[in-house]
Specification:
five-stranded antiparallel beta sheet; alpha+beta; Glutaredoxin
């Protein structure tokens, strides 16, 4: 009986640690080789709606090779926002430019894609331009409504004139029939929030949404801290972290992605739920065993 009681105490402690882990979820992600594809689009763009017939399948088939980001227009588009405006400006685009247009790793296609095959070739070209890519390690911690994202590049290909950028994407943003004049009632991977930080500057949209630091010596360490945005569902959000060249001076060349990764938070929720139920089941089994053993005595 004493031995079974000790086991029960051990499992109860295990359960308490699991509950604490649920309240302070920590996830570790490692990658860096994904190509960032940013699509300038709009709810009124008919050609964009035609492309949406094949883009989702193309993105899904490429898995972690590609990170899709939708940047909506600020003109008559309810999904347009400050973050998209900033990012389009960063890419050298304006709302006067044609939609859809695609940028791969910060470089706008010289000949806009009109088919999945052409878009796939642009992806292959962006991968070929990445002669090397860094290893990007990210720790994400959720404590109540506060989120902390720590991003580390231990052997950066470049430190000066680079930024660490964090984005929150709404996996599927709904569009009302009144606004969706092109007939598409949803948009995938819509940019909602952005923080970009380097050695000299911090950029945050929406303003005052979060803070970040950029520390560098032989490696890069950035920490992003923010409150979870209102109106954004936890289980329909993707976090993107990018290390990218932010200076377009002649000696540094064009802006481009050096390393990037993404993490879908609905996967985090599923794994967290499982970790809580396992010790609960074990405690129930041991409790039943103790009761049965006591009756037999």
């Amino acid at each position: 009986m004493g031995r079974l009681s000790l086991i029960l105490v051990f499992l109860i402690l295990t359960l308490s640690f699991s509950v604490q882990a649920e309240e302070n979820n920590v996830y570790e992600i490692r990658g860096g080789g994904s190509v960032v594809m940013e699509m300038s689009t709009a709810v009124w763009c008919d050609v964009c709606a035609e492309h949406e017939e094949w883009i989702p399948d193309m993105v899904e088939s490429n898995g972690e090779r590609m990170i899709r980001i939708n940047l909506h227009s600020s003109i008559n588009d309810p999904l347009g926002n400050e973050a998209s405006n900033y990012r389009k400006s960063w890419l050298g685009q304006t709302d006067a430019d044609a939609t859809p247009s695609y940028s791969f790793d910060g470089l706008i296609e010289s000949t806009p894609s009109s088919s999945s095959g052409e878009l796939q070739r642009s992806l292959l070209g962006a991968e070929a331009d990445r002669i090397q890519h860094e290893v990007l390690e990210v720790n994400i911690t959720f404590n109540a409504s506060i989120v902390s994202v720590e991003a580390v590049v231990n052997e950066p290909l470049q430190i000066n004139s680079t930024s660490m950028t964090l984005m929150l994407l709404e996996s599927k943003a709904l569009i009302s029939p009144e606004d969706a004049t092109n007939g598409k009632l949803s948009s995938d991977s819509v940019l909602r929030n952005i923080i970009s930080v380097n050695q000299n500057e911090l950029i945050v949209y929406p303003q005052d949404w979060g803070v970040a630091t950029f520390d560098s010596n032989s490696s890069i360490f950035s920490k992003f801290t923010f409150s979870w945005p209102d109106g954004l569902d936890y289980d329909s959000t993707t976090i993107v972290v990018i290390h990218e060249k932010s200076d377009t001076s002649p000696e540094n060349g064009a802006r481009t992605t050096i390393s990037a990764l993404s993490w879908s938070l609905d996967q985090s929720a599923e794994s967290g739920s499982y970790s809580l139920w396992v010790p609960l089941i074990f405690v129930a089994i041991i409790t039943a065993s103790i009761r049965l053993y006591s009756r037999e005595q």
